[in-house]
Write a structure and sequence with these properties.
By secondary structure, the protein is of the alpha/beta class. It has 2 domains: 46-156 and 312-361, Periplasmic binding protein-like II (D-Maltodextrin-Binding Protein, domain 2), CATH 3.40.190; 158-310 and 383-430, Periplasmic binding protein-like II (D-Maltodextrin-Binding Protein, domain 2). It is built from 18 helices and 13 strands. It has helices at 2-42, 55-71, 87-96, 109-114, 138-143, 166-171, 180-191, 202-217, 232-247, 259-263, 277-286, 324-336, 338-344, 354-361, 369-379, 389-392, 394-408, 414-430; strands at residues 46-52, 76-82, 103-106, 145-146, 149-150, 152-154, 157-165, 196-198, 267-273, 291-294, 308-311, 314-317, 385-386. Strands 7, 8, 9, 10, 11 and 13 form a 6-stranded mixed sheet that branches. It has a 5-stranded mixed sheet with strand order 2-1-3-12-6. A two-stranded antiparallel sheet has the order 4-5. The longest helix has 41 residues, at 2-42. It is globular.
Length: 431
């Protein structure tokens, strides 16, 4: 009997202890839930910002973001960034999986790819209470408008400019070439010392060839709707011209181009975006080199210039953003806040925002090479067209480059390569 009473007492004690433990655990769990809820409430306005660029761009953008969150303590901004190589393909994955950033730096060409009907990005017109749209002209806003929806705002306007090492040109008794014939004359002189007149990446090489094609044929290679206009015969002739550029040392082979060779004068000039002026012009001048800036070469009596202008890059907001007002505040900060404007300067080109121009004007904007280059381009803007998305499409450029190599290295004839290029680009543009 005593044993039963003892067991009963022990059982009661055990049940009591289990009840106490459960109560303690429940209290702790409630505490954790309350704490979690508190964190969630405090951190509910979280944004993701994405961009691409070089290390200096990463550094000043993060500096600006830190300042933005200091003055907006209720907003947390995380970021995703990288260099340009491979970034376009990553963006495609993010867009298709709907995991893109809330506020995004985008390429102008992406508007047609992801928002042809204007619904692929948030309509910034709906956020006019948070974004000062008056700092942009109607023409500037039109670049980012699709089907009446303002999908993006331009950071700066961009086109191509040529920079030449004038010191090297002087050594060869050359002036900066202003025509295709002058380019060939210069290349032949430089070839004797295994130097090249121009060096550039594959996109710039493709756009250079488009310019020659349009000047020589008088028609656009790509229609405004993105369709491919070139015929196989025209492509074949363009491949032969491309081979001549390489053979006569007007153009360094894409895969051999190194910026170091440009910096040391082995490659005398380059064609680059105005926004890349610090890298290809300012950097030489800082080393004591005299640099000459030129506009695009022209064929006599050409009916088209074959040269294009576009927004350098743009800021857009995801259509699926959870906190549109806060995202709009961040976008406005990136374009119009004096602190951010001074951090960015003209690294992305001369800003489109009138507020940014006003701020930078007091900082010596008009003394920069970017400003001078932009003024040159704007003076000739009537001769230029708005860039077509497919001209910059990575798949299109790669099709041309890979197949052109087959001709350049003698593995296929120009006609054979032209047929392949025609079929593959035509198909890609139709997708």
């Amino acid at each position: 009997m005593r044993n039963l009473e003892r067991e009963h007492i022990l059982m009661v004690i055990l049940i009591f202890m289990l009840g106490v433990s459960a109560a303690i655990m429940l209290q702790r769990e409630n505490g954790r839930i309350s704490l979690a809820d508190s964190i969630s409430d405090r951190h509910e306005k979280i944004l993701l910002l994405s961009w691409w660029g070089n290390d200096p761009r990463h550094e000043y953008t993060m500096d600006g973001v830190n300042h933005f969150t200091d003055i907006n303590p209720d907003i947390i901004v995380n970021y995703r960034y990288g260099e340009w190589t491979g970034y376009e393909k990553k963006t495609k994955v993010w867009m298709l999986s709907e995991s893109e950033a809330d506020v995004m730096q985008i390429n102008y060409a992406w508007l047609d790819e992801y928002s042809a009907d204007g619904t692929g990005f948030y309509d910034l017109n709906e956020l006019a209470d948070y974004i000062d749209l008056n700092t942009f002209t109607e023409e500037q806003k039109a670049y980012g408008t699709r089907n009446g929806h303002l999908n993006a705002l331009p950071i700066a306007m961009n086109s191509h400019v040529f920079y030449y090492n004038q010191d090297v040109l002087d050594d060869y008794d050359l002036s900066a070439p202003m025509s295709w014939n002058e380019m060939f004359d210069a290349g032949k002189k430089l070839k004797k010392d295994d130097r090249y007149l121009l060096g550039m990446g594959k996109k710039q090489t493709f756009l250079l060839l488009i310019a020659y094609y349009e000047q020589s044929t008088g028609k656009a290679m790509f229609d405004s709707d993105g369709s491919f206009n070139a015929t196989p015969d025209e492509i074949s002739e363009l491949l032969v011209f491309y081979g001549k550029l390489l053979e006569d040392h007007v153009l360094c082979p894409v895969d051999s181009f190194e910026r170091a060779d440009y910096m040391n004068g082995e490659i005398v000039g380059t064609m680059c975006w105005i926004s890349d002026t610090p890298e290809y012009c300012d950097a030489l001048e800082e080393n004591g080199v005299r640099v000459t800036r030129c506009l695009y070469p022209m064929l006599p009596d050409a009916k088209r210039t074959g040269w294009y202008i576009k927004p350098a890059t743009m800021w857009a907001i995801s259509k699926d953003v959870k906190h549109p007002a806060e995202a709009a505040a961040l976008l406005n900060y990136l374009l119009n806040d004096p602190y951010m404007i001074k951090l960015q300067g003209v690294e992305k080109g001369i800003p489109a925002s009138s507020k940014a121009v006003e701020v930078l004007d007091a900082e010596g904007l008009k003394d920069t090479n970017e400003y001078a280059a932009t003024e040159d381009i704007m003076a000739h803007s009537s001769e230029m067209n708005i860039i077509v998305a497919n001209m910059e499409k990575e798949d299109v450029i790669e099709i041309f480059k890979q197949n052109a190599d087959e001709f350049i290295f003698g593995r296929m004839s120009a006609d054979e390569c032209a047929d392949i290029i025609y079929e593959e680009i035509k198909k890609t543009c139709a997708e």
